[in-house]
Write a structure and sequence with these properties.
The protein is built from five helices and six strands. Helix 2 packs across helix 3. Strand 5 and strand 6 form a beta hairpin. It folds into two domains: 32 residues; 101 residues, OB fold (Dihydrolipoamide Acetyltransferase, E2P), CATH 2.40.50.140. The radius of gyration is 22 Å and the shape is elongated. Helix content is 41%, strand content 32%. With 145 residues, it is an alpha/beta fold. The termini are far apart.
Length: 145
Amino acid sequence: MMKKKSVVRLVIWLLLIGIVTAFSAIYYVFNMPRRNLSKEVAVYSLAAKQLINDYQIDETFANKKYLDKAITVRGIIRSVRTLENHTMIFSIEDAMEGVSCTLDSADVVKYQTKLDLIKIGTEGTFKGRCAGKLMDIQIINCIPQ
């Protein structure tokens, strides 16, 4: 009888430890600090056309070179979209298969004066983290330069 109680108690403790660990991991993932790209030096500074060309030639090599690195990209703004959550997306060089620079809503507020100067058809420069290619090349957490 005593063995059953200790086994049940052990199972309950293991379950509680597992639940606490799972909730801690979930909390950390949803609240982990974001990289502050304004303080990082860009590893690469290049024209959007060059970035597009690198991905068209060899996507695997381009991912090894640019993925998850801070880069500065410049080119002609083709479209500007503002999402419901006030996130802004700037398409550079080609609205469908070019470079997509995404600014979080907090950064939109912080850099509003610089963003007001950026118009469709003008050249824009953004620093951000390369997140790879979907239809277009994704640069996230962007900051206008």
